[in-house]
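Quick one, tokens below:
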């Protein structure tokens, strides 16, 4: 579960202060596929980045499974972060490394045994359908395949939460469909809670059960997808 409680984030830009998040109150339940939609600049990216502390709130709190990450020790924080996977619009993969090496990276960094790494990487590569691409370099892959690698890397630490930052915005409609299908399976087969931000209504309609609409740093509406999108 993810709870935003009066979460506020301000950026100092020169002499002016930009309020990216303005007292956000929002709860994402375990098992949700929760979508946050809004125009560019609404605060979506900042919101999702406060969950794994890529951005630290200026005030207010963010609780992840009841824990406020800003209060943890470095060691506890490293453990908690394994619980939160993230995928990105532009994939954020290492081009000089193979598919296997990219997916293994989070495990290598946490000092896990080589044989265990091989097992876990093989398992997630099979899940995303890329077992035969393990030794390929990132530049040899299509956009959809790159995002599958991103998803595999996010899943390899066995998280309970997956954050998706405009994960299909760089993909064509057909590829978007297949990535959304895969995310559905992540939610259903692994029971992972998904929090995604997008500016595309279709993406929300396709896989989310709940949605929040953001505007100017505020949540202006929240509910289940049918309610919010069928209201007159
Ligand atoms: P969205 O993801 O909905 O496009 P963002 O969260 O990226 O919105 O941005 C919300 C507001 O915060 C925008 O006005 C943006 O310019 C500003 N902002 C985001 N990140 C920074 C930053 N690192 N420094 C200054 N301003 C930022
Ligand atoms: P995307 O829309 O692909 O997430 P953005 O251009 O919104 O990319 O943001 C890219 C990075 O720049 C993010 O780390 C964000 O926090 C930062 N950023 C966004 N707006 C600003 C801004 N006005 N000033 C400084 N940094 C910003």
């Amino acid at each position: 579960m993810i709870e935003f409680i009066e979460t506020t984030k301000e950026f100092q830009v020169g002499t002016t202060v930009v309020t990216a998040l303005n007292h956000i109150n929002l709860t994402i339940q375990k098992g949700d596929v929760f979508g946050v939609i809004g125009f560019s600049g609404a605060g979506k990216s900042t919101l999702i980045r406060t969950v794994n502390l890529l951005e630290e709130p200026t005030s207010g709190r963010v609780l992840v499974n009841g824990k406020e990450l800003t209060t943890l020790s470095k060691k506890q924080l490293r453990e908690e972060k394994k619980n939160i996977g993230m995928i990105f619009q532009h994939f954020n993969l290492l081009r000089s490394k193979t598919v296997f090496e990219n997916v293994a990276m989070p495990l290598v960094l946490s000092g896990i045994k080589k044989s265990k790494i091989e097992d876990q990487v093989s398992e997630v590569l099979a899940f995303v359908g890329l077992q035969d691409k393990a030794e390929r370099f990132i530049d040899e892959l299509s956009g959809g395949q790159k995002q599958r690698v991103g998803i595999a890397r996010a899943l390899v630490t066995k998280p309970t939460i997956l954050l998706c930052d405009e994960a299909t915005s760089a993909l064509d409609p057909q590829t978007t469909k297949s990535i959304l299908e895969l995310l559905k399976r992540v939610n259903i087969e692994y029971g992972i809670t998904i929090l995604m931000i997008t500016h595309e209504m279709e993406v929300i309609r396709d896989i989310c059960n709940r949605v929040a609409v953001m505007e100017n740093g505020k949540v202006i509406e929240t509910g289940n997808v049918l309610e919010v999108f069928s209201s007159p």
